[in-house]
Automatic annotation (TrEMBL):
InterPro entries: FAD-bd, FAD/NAD-bd_sf, FAD_mOase_fung. Residues 20-182, 304-385 form the FAD-binding domain. The chain crosses the membrane at residues 20-37. It comes from the Eukaryota. Keywords: FAD, Flavoprotein, Membrane, Oxidoreductase, Transmembrane, Transmembrane helix. It comes from Entomortierella chlamydospora. This is FAD-binding domain-containing protein. GO terms for molecular function: FAD binding; monooxygenase activity.
Amino acid sequence: MESTYPSQPPHVIRDGKTPHVMIVGAGLAGLLLAILLDRINVPYEIYERSEEIRPLGGVMSLNANILPAFEQLGLLDDLKEVSLPSRDFNILTGNLEKIAVFEGDDETFETIGYHIRLFSRPKLYSLLLSHVPAEKIHLKKKVTSIAHNKDGATIECSDGTTYHGDILVGADGAYSSVRQGLYKLLQDKGQLPESDTKGLSKCNICMVGTTNPLNPEKYPCLTNSTSLSYQIIGEGTPYTWSSMTVPNNQICWNAVMQLGSDVSESEKFRNSEWGPESNEAMIKEVRDFRVPTGTLGDLIDATPKEDISRVFLEDKLFETWNHGRVVLIGDACHKLLPSSGQGAVNAMQDAVILANCIYELRSVAENDVAEALHDFKEQRYPHVKDQYEASQMSAKLLYGQTFFEKILRKVVLNYMPKSIQRKSMTKDLAYRPQASFLPQAPKRGTLNVLPQKPSKRYQEEQRLAAGTPNAI
């Protein structure tokens, strides 16, 4: 796959205006932020607690909320190579009878301008990782404490090493060490809102995987030019499950079990990260569930055991995202349920807007840094709040097994007019943040896109480059 990404910029000399950024966490948000910082010649280092970078399975989708930023960066064509467009989303009963179909017709595409791209999670991870120099990522760096003051920010790691910078970004997931360190500092000062002292809300437990490449003769659906996506809602069981075709003759699958209120906090913590777990009991419960290609067990058997992950689906919208020189992005400050497919999208939108705010920095002085990080939260919080609430509603529709949730699903999927469904969808997709320091991607689709905060610095730089005098 030939990359359109430019060569690395020259080393930036510290000038009192360009910050050195420490990114804790080599997830999607951290990697995209690194790529964006490269474009504005801002030096950074990434500190990752894992011993190796090994993305695991599971399906993902990206839509018009983030694809324009990928287009700006020259990554959209690369993404298309490892993904399939998704047009229809089928919701079925456990007996594979149709409940509802959300159709992505030509009118919808003409309005939005982008197809939803669907792929296995490791493909996107590998794509972003390939554009970050290996020497910028430091493994086995588990952060144990943080500090920040007028002179800079500091992290201390479990191996005894210490690192310094001007800005500390916590992109280290739902159980963020940076967030825990920041909140401890604020709580000691009596400055932490009470809501931020509470843990994440657990809702479901999910097992995910991606098969090895399969034989198209046995699975003819793999020859389809668009992804075939099925969400299946069981009857008389707390489970829902899904299967979705992706490139390379693979199928992504998952099984989601609605939880009761008796799950212990210790068990929740053990299952809080994407990673291999002891899944045999859950596999035994779900392997006979039907999918359009056979059974879920067929897909599980075709998936490497080490690539099957189990995780609690939890959510939480934290109030405190930044303080001083420290800022949180992605799951570290807003953990969304995956039902609406917006968790990764919002994490990467964070990276885009944070890079914009860093680009506008007047200096690395503490007040200027704090102001920029506050501006980041002000721009992002209202949009994240909307998506947080939408993900909770989607979870009720796609995973819910209570009597109320079943009634809600029947009403919404069968009686809500398509015009209202389309209006809700287009409202969400009107928000398309882009890097303010790069030429904007062409407007695609007829939908009126929400304007974003313009960059005075970029406008001035373009004026100077063109030799245009100041307007009178």
